[in-house]
Design goal:
Number of helices: 3
Largest sheet: 3 strands, mixed
Number of strands: 3
Shape: globular
Oligomer: single chain
Strand content: 25-35%
């Protein structure tokens, strides 16, 4: 999953996405229903942050770069499951 996330991060970088570090990260999880526990869904942030490092988007995912994060969940039966990753200001 880290490799897959790194590919998405690399594509975002090619499109000009940049964050100012250190920062807080906001993750919005678009999910189809309430069947999975929130902590099981949000666990995937580990792969996202590791993918950011692997892609060279960020030097490290320690507290020198990521000051914290927030998880938000949005139920949508009509949309594909995904996560939106944003820099909080």
């Amino acid at each position: 999953m880290t490799n897959k996330c790194a590919l998405f991060v690399t594509r975002a970088m090619q499109l000009g996405v940049k964050f100012e570090f250190p920062c807080r990260i906001k993750l919005t999880w678009i999910i189809p229903n309430k069947r999975k526990d929130a902590d099981n869904i949000a666990f995937a942030k580990k792969f996202i942050f590791d993918g950011m490092v692997q892609a060279g988007f960020i030097e490290n995912d320690n507290l020198n770069y990521i000051k914290g994060f927030s998880d938000h969940f949005f139920i949508s039966k009509d949309e594909e499951s995904r996560v939106i990753v944003e820099m909080e200001v």
